[in-house]
Amino acid sequence: MFADTKAKVIWVLVPVISMGLLAALPFVIATVKGVVRPIVPVVYGAATVVAIAIGLSVDAIAGPGNESPIPGFFLVLLIATAATHTALLDTEYVKFGRK
Question: I want to staple 45 with a disulfide (CB 3.0 to 4.6 A). Which of 12, 24, 39, 64 is the partner?
Answer without folding.
Answer: 24
